[in-house]
Amino acid sequence: MAILLGILIATVTSTDIVVPAYFDPVDSGLTDWNTMTNSAKTVPLTVIMNPDDGPGSSAFGYYKTAIAKLRANGAKVIGYVATGYGKNAMATVQAQINKYFSFYTIDGIFFDEMSDDDTPALVTYYQTLYKFVKAKSASYQVMNNPGTNLAETYVKLPVADRFVVYEDKQGNYGAYKALPYMGNYATTRFVHIVYNVTAAQVSGDVNTAIAKHAGGVYLTNLKLPNPYAKLPSFWPQQVSAVAAKNG
């Protein structure tokens, strides 16, 4: 936000679709990656890649090809790294980060299993990881996933550029409330991921995400235990809904 002549003005930003693409770009998965590549021409996309619960032990050629195509169309690709709610060893997490940037040309890191507890030790843990990524390039995006609202301490420092503050089923989405402090930060800082969504709910849920101060959104009809095994059946509808909101 900006203040001009005493008037509070909201900065206009585009909403992006943040896709947990936890499926390889081979066989049926390749079709979905190609679909995302085409959609990147229409709507901003951030794609979370996850070859092997992290980068794996070596690079995969099919990922290199798929990533290059996505990025050529303007999408951002970030690599999945689990943090075990702050319990995974720092050296292990940093080694996975190094592998991603060694294996692939990507745009940042997605830290899953973020603790929403703001004890000094955990704040230091996530701030250390943030600085580790940013030391490689200030342009790299860091997205953390507590999956729920978190203390402003994390956002203000910051320990990430973006936070997934809602990751849950659609049935609970209406009750979700953004915390008051979030209004002091750009919508781009916050992401909502909603599963078990019906096609009839897509347009309304996109509106809800925007109304609840999220600048990134992902909706899927898939359910637990793995709502990220493929793109949702209503993907074209979701792309159209977000594109329409972006004008």
Q: Could you give the topology of this structure?
A:
Blueprint: E1 2-4, E2 7-9, E3 16-21, H1 27-39, E4 45-49, H2 61-72, E5 76-82, H3 90-103, E6 108-112, H4 120-136, E7 141-144, H5 152-156, E8 162-169, E9 190-195, H6 202-211, E10 216-219, H7 235-246
Parallel strand pairs: 3-4, 3-10, 4-5, 5-6, 6-7, 7-8, 8-9, 9-10
Antiparallel strand pairs: 1-2
Helix pairs in contact: 1-2, 3-4, 6-7
Description:
This is Spherulation-specific family 4. The structure is a single chain. The chain is of the alpha/beta class and 247 residues long. The chain has one domain: Alpha-Beta Barrel (TIM Barrel), CATH 3.20.20.80. The protein has 7 helices and 10 strands. The chain has helices spanning 27-39, 61-72, 90-103, 120-136, 152-156, 202-211, 235-246, and strands at 2-4, 7-9, 16-21, 45-49, 76-82, 108-112, 141-144, 162-169, 190-195, 216-219. The longest helix is centred in the middle third of the chain and has 17 residues, at 120-136. 41% of the residues are buried.
